[in-house]
Each structure stands twice: as structure tokens, then as C-alpha cells.
Amino acid sequence: MRYSALSIFLNALSGNRHWQPAWREPAPKPHYDVVIVGGGGHGLATAYYLAKVFGVRNIAVLEKSYLGSGNIGRNTTIIRSNYLLEGNQPFYEFSLKLWEGLEQDFNFNAMVSQRGVLNLYHSDAQRDAYTRRGNAMLLSGADAELLDRDDVRRMLPFLDFTNARFPIRGGLLQRRGGTVRHDAVAWGYARGADALGVDIIQHCAVTGIRREGDRVTGVDTTRGTIGCGKLALSTAGHSSVTASLAGLRLPVESHVLQAFVSEGLKPFIDNVVTFGAGHFYVSQSDKGGLVFGGDIDGYNSYARRGNLATVEHVMEAGVAMIPGLSRIRALRSWGGIVDMTMDGSPIIDKTHLPNLYLNAGWNYGGFKATPAAGWCFAHLIARDAPHEVATAYRLDRFARGYLIDERGAGAQANLH
Amino acid sequence: MASLIPCPHCGMRPKEEFTIKGSADVARPAPEAGTQDWLDYVYLRENPMGRLSEYWHHASGCRRWLVVSRDSVNHDIYSVQDAAQAKGGGA
User: Fold this and answer.
1) A289: domain CATH number?
2) ipTM reported for the complex, 2 dp
3) What is the predicted pLDDT for the residue at B90?
4) Is the same domain home to A150 and A126?
């Protein structure tokens, strides 16, 4: 059923008893043309664009738990395209353009809110770096505005502008950036893919990859063996685990990244604001809670919970940026497992096996990339060639020396 | 991560006193080793789900390098050894 104002009205008249589930729960078929491992945002988006844009039918998405149980339901919902390097910025701008049309495209309210993303700067050198980055953004077709201190003060008068260590001198603003309801992204892609005939198989963990010579022929799962023409791994957080089933070692470490939400407050922060120097960023959800986070805890972990030392550090950084936060109570905290690559940039590439494809290594930023990662991964799977905005995300760039060191920090966040 | 680490020199100490360098399972190749050996050492990781060994520096304690064997899922600590002893050398 297509969702519309009319469908809401008609279902209300019949007491809302006739809504149908948004996707089927099919039993796995013995063989699919493409099997995607990982029913997170990226896996579902890949299936959706494979079916919709690249005309591939007979696709399965295998999810070991339930949809939305991984990082698509654990992130802090920010979208933006404010990168510097040529290998990155066109990709993220492509993603932001897809976000802008996403809800109409998959007919689901994902609450895309372009409320603006502001990165604060604190010194002349940082201002110059942001000027350069803003110009790179403009060259890629994105929007960017450099604000001075008075501009920022008009937007966010409650920041600590005279902080002794990091006085706020201004910020780089991308007005088209913002937030999206993260769960709705998973649901919308799942519903859209399902309507195009994709089988979404939940509670189906992959335990082995079957091969004949160099070719992948199928996967062993907790729900039996499933054959496939092409196999796509999209299991960020656990990429090393699934890749090891095919004998592949990745330049990836799994780390825990924490996020937090405060009690509900009246409208307070209209934008996403980042305080990179202090390891803190914040936005306010539509329910009123402040959603915030910082850096990774800094040790390898597959446990989706973090350490109190990092909690304390994030809270301290938050109060340093907004002194008024000191009296706000934190409601919840949680952790997600992220793939930290050695240069801090992702991988969308073919592998040593001709019909095995890999989407991994999203570090801090997998959520904002969801539509473009799905599109570009689908392009790679369908055409065996990278999409033009994702040519730099090669697995062999580490061997060749073509790192994309956007942030200058991968798994070792403590190197600054 | 476990909150308390049994340092062989200092006893049970809070995790925040330590700095984690990374995997103790990778060995630095010889300078003339080939590209693949250096690629393995610098970039590729086992990244095990379960037991792993790491070099930890007890920066706020005895300042010794340690080899900590722990679990990346349930956060159990299996063993903590002085790195010099773990390597079989004298110190």
C-alpha cells in the first residue's frame, strides 16, 4: 500500500484495523542472484537500489538479529557533506542529495530535517582550515558558509564564547545538513526493497561462505544453506568477522562508540553543533532530548557498551561548550560497534574473490552515507565497476599508498 | 572493558591508568622485508571477536609495558604479564 494522507484518512475511518505489515517475513529460498549479508541501513539501501535502479531481481538480505538492531538504530542521526578531500566530498554530497529526495522516493516519512550543521572553530589556523574546507565543499556543489563569532552568537547565544582553552571564534555552517529519524531509514528502505521483491530474512546469521575454487557459491546460515550468484558483505562493526569467513583480513579494528540522550527539554538547540576540539557534538531531537556524543572509547571491543571514563569526558566537553548543560540530566547512553579503518575512510570494493563484494570501514560516519553507500555498492555489484563518486574507496589503497586521511585519525583516536 | 586490571607489579588498578598501544600478536618485520609483510604489520588486523592480546602501558603506575590478554566481547581479563617476561627476555 502506498502511504498518503488519503490512506491515513481511510484507515482512520475503519479504526486503523487494516494496516498491513510494512514488509514480509519470507522463508529463505534455495538460491538468489545476490545475497547481501547485513540488514542494516547500508544493506537494505543496497538491496533497494539494486532492485530499483539497477534492475536486479531475486535478492535476499540476511540479518542476524532484527532490522534496526545494529548501528542504523544506534547512531546520532546526523547528515552532512562537509568534507575536504576529493575522494570523499563528492560521495557525501551525492549522499546528501539522495537524502533530500529520499522520503518521496521510498514513500516513507524519515523525518529528514535540514536544520544545519555547524562546526565551531577556535583559532586563526582552524578558521583558515575551515575556509579551505568550505571552498572544497562549494566546488563539489555543496553549500557552506563561514560564520564569525557574532554570527554564531546570534544563532547560539548560550555557548561559552570566552572558554579559556577553546574560545569560540566562529564556525563553518552547512545549512543543508541536519538530522534524519534513523530507525525510519531502516524501515523505509526495508519496506521499499520488500515491495520490489527483495526477501528480507531476519534472525538469519551467516556462519560460513561456500566456495568452488575462486567463486562464492553460497552461504551457510542458521536457517540453512543459501546459494548465491554474488555475495555482498555489509556488516560494519563486524566486517572483520564476516570477511574472515572468506579468508580475508581487513585494515579494520572494531571499536565501541558511545552516544547519549538527555531528558526532554523545550526547544533549545536548533542545529547540529560540533565542538571537535573538545570531542563533543549535540543536536536536539523532535522529542526534546539532547542527542550527543564524542569520540570512540579507544580500545578494541565487540561489546555494545562503553566505559564510564568516556562518559565523563563527553559530559565535561559538553559543559565546556554549553555551561548550561551542567544541570541537565542524561537519560540514556548506549554503544555501537564501529569499523575503524587505518586511515579513517570507508571501503566499497571488490575483493580477492570475483563475486564477493565488500562494504565496510565506516568509522564514525556510516549513517550519513547510507543512501550513497547503498547506491554505490549496488552499482559495484550490478556492473562490476565502481560508481564515479566512490572510486577512491578501494581495499588495496593501503598497499598502494593512496590513503584518504581526511581526519588524520583512524583506529588510534588517541593520537592527538 | 573491565574496570580493574591486575597489574603484575601494582596489583588491581583502574583501567584509566593504562594506555593501550594495540595488538601484541603482530611482529615488526625486518627493514628489508617485502611490501606484503609491511602491509600486514602496518594496516591489516586480525580484529578477533573474543580473545586477543595487546600491549598496554601502565602510564600512571609502574610505567612498565604489559601484555594483556582479554576478551573483546565479554571484557574478561585472562592474563596480564610484564612484556619483557612475555617475550621470554630478562628485565
Assistant:
1) 3.30.9.10
2) 0.93
3) 44
4) yes
- The rounded distance, in Å, linking the Cα atoms of A201 and B47 is 27
Q: Which residue of A has its CA nearest to B49?
A: A302
Interface test with A, best of B3, B43, B74 (most A CBs within 10 A): B43
Q: Which run of H or E residues covers position A61?
A: strand A59-62
Predicted pLDDT of residue B27? 87
The residue in chain B having the minimum alpha-carbon distance to the alpha carbon of residue A298 is B20
- CA distance to partner chain A, nearest, from residue B7 (Å): 18
Q: Do B40 and A249 touch (CB under 8 A)?
A: yes
Helices (H), A329-368: none
Q: Which three cell numbers stand for residue A9?
A: 484518512
- The answer to whether position A187 is within a domain reads yes
Q: A-B interface: how many C-beta pairs under 8 angstroms?
A: 62
If one counts the domains in chain A, the total is: 2
Minimal Cα distance from A243: which residue of B? Answer: B46
Whose cell is 479504526? That residue is: A15
The region, left, alpha or beta by phi > 0 then psi within -120 to 50, assigned to residue A58 is left
Which residues of chain B are within 8 Å of residue A399 when distances are taken between CB atoms?
A: 35-36, 39, 43
User: Residue A205: how many CA atoms within 13 Å on its side-chain side?
Assistant: 7
Instruction: From chain A, pick out residues whose CB is under 8 angstroms from the CB of B74.
Output: 303
Mean pLDDT of the residues in chain B: 91
Q: Are residues A55 and A149 in the same domain?
A: no
10-residue mean pLDDT series, chain A (416 residues): 92 94 96 98 98 97 96 96 95 98 96 97 96 96 97 97 95 98 97 97 97 97 97 96 96 96 95 93 96 93 92 96 95 96 95 97 96 98 97 95 84 62
CATH 3.40.109.10 is right for the domain spanning B4-86 = no
Closest CA–CA distance from residue B19 to any residue of chain A (Å)? 9
pLDDT classification of B51: cutoffs 50, 70, 90: very high
- The shortest CB-CB distance from A303 to any of B3, B45, B75 is to B75
* B44 in reach of chain A (CB within 8 A): yes
Is there a contact between B39 and A249 if contact means CB atoms under 8 Å apart?
A: no
- Kindly state whether residues A192 and A241 are assigned to the same domain: yes
Local confidence band at B25 (pLDDT 50, 70, 90 cut-offs): confident
Residues A258, A155 share a domain: yes
Amino acid present at B81: Q
Closest by CA to A239, choosing from A376, A30, A411, is A411
Q: What is the pLDDT of residue B91?
A: 42
Q: Taking CB atoms and an 8 Å limit, are B73 and A302 in contact across chains?
A: yes
Q: Do B45 and A250 touch (CB under 8 A)?
A: yes
- The secondary structure of A199-242 as a DSSP string is EEE-S--EEEEEEETTEEEEEEETTEEEEEEEEEE--TTSHHHH
User: CATH number for the domain including A356?
Assistant: 3.50.50.60
Band (pLDDT 50/70/90 cuts) for residue B88 is: low
Domain range spanning residue A205? Answer: 24-77+182-251+343-400
pLDDT at A416: 45
Are residues A316 and A259 located together in one domain of the fold? yes
**Longest C-alpha distance within chain A, in Å?**
65
Question: Which residue among B35, B47, B75 places its CB closest to the CB of A253?
Answer: B47
The answer on A357 and A337 residing in a single domain is no
From B20, which residue of chain A is nearest by alpha-carbon distance?
A299
